[in-house]
Design brief:
Length: 284
């Protein structure tokens, strides 16, 4: 369950943008409360549909600028507003939006402020999500369902990132369970999607109940390829020249990415559950 898709819904995006653009903690409270209620309703539905089965919920992964309007489009809108002589108040509001969008732009967003880095530097988002997950689990238990809760922390590169995020999450979980008078088993794990995470899996496993392998990002960071650029610009030629046998984003690279996954599995604790989704061509 990738929670960012829930944020992209038409009725939610304005609240996400309001939260991102808020200048103070006080201004963030209202949109976070709205999003909490919406996310909780989502998780209630998922837990009911999956009763008795594990539900892995990945906390927010993409950078926040993905939820904001496009910079160039906003710049053109501002230009048009000035030409049409709209009010100073409207123009000022659009200028503030433009500044906010510009301030969040990154040279390489795939390796920038996203995943657990976002959860650590902007903890209110992850706090809201974890609270929504556990409150939803409590709600469905009251209706006779059996939620199996697994929370995934994305883009971990260092054990301390997972340690900090886990500790913060467990504070929220404990608070909710005590308030609701419940005792719900849960797991907290991470996605191994960076080479360093694979190479230090034994250290990361100290704070993880499970691993899941994100082969898309792991392939990008192992090869140094940006999928959006590599697939249209040079991978077909690389295959034609036999530099690559197949597109590594469609069929796992056994010699590189595969070895990292294998090493990670061997380093992890025996009781740390691992899951990996493979392309059917690879299995064949």
């Amino acid at each position: 369950c990738r929670t960012e898709h829930m944020f992209m819904a038409e009725d939610r995006l304005p609240y996400v943008q309001e939260m991102i653009l808020a200048k103070t903690d006080e201004e963030r409270v209202k949109p976070l409360e709205k999003l909490w209620r919406m996310q909780k309703d989502d998780f209630v539905g998922i837990f009911k549909a999956m009763t008795g089965l594990p539900v892995i919920i990945r906390l927010l992964d993409p950078p926040l600028h993905e939820f904001l309007p496009d910079y160039v489009e906003t710049l053109l809108e501002l230009k048009k507003m000035r030409e049409e002589g709209l009010s100073e108040e409207e123009i000022k509001e659009k200028e503030e939006l433009l500044r906010a969008i510009r301030s969040m732009q990154e040279a390489n967003p795939m390796l920038g402020l996203r995943g657990c880095r976002l959860g650590i530097t902007r903890p209110d988002v992850y706090h809201m999500q974890v609270r929504a997950i556990i409150e939803a689990a409590c709600d469905v238990i009251d209706e006779g369902y059996e939620p199996v809760v697994e929370i995934m922390i994305p883009l971990v590169a260092d054990k301390m990132e997972l340690k900090i995020t886990r500790e913060e999450s467990e504070k929220i979980i404990k608070e909710v369970l005590e308030k609701r008078g419940k005792n719900i088993p849960y797991k907290i794990g991470t996605m191994i999607e960076l080479p360093r995470a694979a190479l230090t899996a034994d250290e990361i496993a100290k704070y993880a109940d499970f691993f899941s392998y994100g082969t898309n990002d792991l392939t990008q960071t192992t090869f140094g390829f940006s999928r959006d650029d590599a697939e249209p610009k040079f991978i077909p030629q690389y295959i034609e020249l036999k530099i690559l046998e197949k597109n590594p984003f469609e069929v796992m690279d056994i010699d590189g990415v595969g070895k990292l996954v294998e090493m990670s599995c061997k380093l992890a604790r025996p009781d740390c559950n691992n899951s990996l989704t493979l392309n059917p061509d690879l299995i064949a």
